[in-house]
Amino acid sequence: MSAQQNDPSFANVWQELRWRGLVHVSTDEAELEELLAGDPVTYYCGFDPTAPSLHLGNLVQLLLMRRLQLAGHKPLALVGGSTGLVGDPRPTAERTMNTKETVAEWVGYLQGQVQRFLSFDGPNGARMVNNLDWTAPMSAIDFLREVGKHYRVGTMIKKDIVATRLNSDEGISYAEFSYQVLQGMDFLELFRSYGCVLQTGGSDQWGNLTSGTELIRKAEGKSVHAIGTPLVTNSDGTKFGKSEGNAIWLDAAMTSPYAMFQFWLNTADTDVIDRLKVFTFRTRAEIEALEQSTAERPHLREAQRTLAYDVTSLIHGIDATEKVIAASAALFGQGELGQLDEPTLTAATAELPAVTLPAGTPTIVELLTASGLSASNSAARRTVSEGGAYVNNVKVTDPEAAIGAEALLHGRYALVRRGKRTLAMVEVEPA
Prior knowledge:
By secondary structure, this protein is an alpha/beta fold. The chain has three domains: 13-231, HUPs (Rossmann fold), CATH 3.40.50; 243-348, Tyrosyl-Transfer RNA Synthetase (Orthogonal Bundle); 354-428, Roll (Structural Genomics Hypothetical 15.5 Kd Protein In mrcA-pckA Intergenic Region, Chain A), CATH 3.10.290. The protein has helices spanning 13-19, 29-37, 56-70, 83-86, 100-115, 132-135, 140-146, 153-156, 160-166, 174-177, 179-194, 206-220, 257-265, 269-279, 284-296, 302-316, 318-331, 342-348, 364-370, 377-385; strands at 25-26, 42-47, 74-79, 127-129, 196-202, 225-229, 242-243, 246-247, 354-357, 389-391, 394-395, 413-418, 422-428. The strands form three sheets. A six-stranded mixed sheet has the order 1-6-5-2-3-4, with helices on both faces. Strands 9-13-12-10-11 form a five-stranded mixed sheet. Strands 7-8 form a two-stranded antiparallel sheet. The radius of gyration is 26 Å and the shape is elongated. It starts with 12 loop residues before the first helix and ends with a strand.
């Protein structure tokens, strides 16, 4: 995996952010470039605890924060203990409000995840902040007098997400309508307390980002900045970071390292170079070489393998990534299945056909038919006699062979293979 450093071939970090495609919309570009090329500045990005884990969309922001930190700037990582109680408006319908206890628990989870991607040491070490600390003590009257007076309803209803909801059958509640005010107040608070002059976020949050820049202009008479990253989509127009409708989470318990690796490995040739720019610290020269490899030798999938290795290592560590690679090889007889720990084994085989058998000592024929790899006992016997039956990568040549507990992985699992690539997982219940 490439070291975490910015590419010295660029004149400054702004030029690198532009090349990586991380700037979709921003405040004044010339001012931003000058600001980020100068003395260290404080910036922030917010993450709302609307789930117990961050996902790949959040990873874009975390890596942008890290690139700015590597350029010498100081990050504030905000996990929204108060904004998470409301939730930013979705395009289609009102969010379901979670309990205060749930949100507080999720704040802790997200803070732990954010800490893995930033450095909290040194002169520009990151600081963790929670907006509940300044919103909870504020009364509704103070909120309206000190913050609400700076907002104009006419401007608020023109924000894209609000306008979309106002024109829908669902409408929008006052709570979600007020979200942009809460986020604007966050920027104002961080400006006053830490001298924060830049906020980053997804371009779909642009209305909320500019809520803060406008509030600071009105309340303090100062000019601050915002960067909106593009929403990452696949070349076919589908939403990035979704796998059959399920988000790809940064929590290993919600998306296993094996599933994470496979997600990146399956990136289309048309998307992989853009993904390398956004999600890895590979240099421009390295990425251009991988682009050439993709064009000339696409069957090698060198760019996809690099992407999968780098991002999975970044999220879950090199050790977990090496286990994933070993598991992928072992499934097809190119490694030692017995060396895989149980979580890696079950994650690697999660998408295979699976069946559970009662305690006992099944024969190879029973394993082939129970798993669906053979349609009948006679077909299973034929597979065995032709040398095409394997249990845990060991060829079985006797159709009457019984598979005892000693031959099972972790005392219960049989990876059954017919031929070179047709697999199924059989779990035999312990006696």
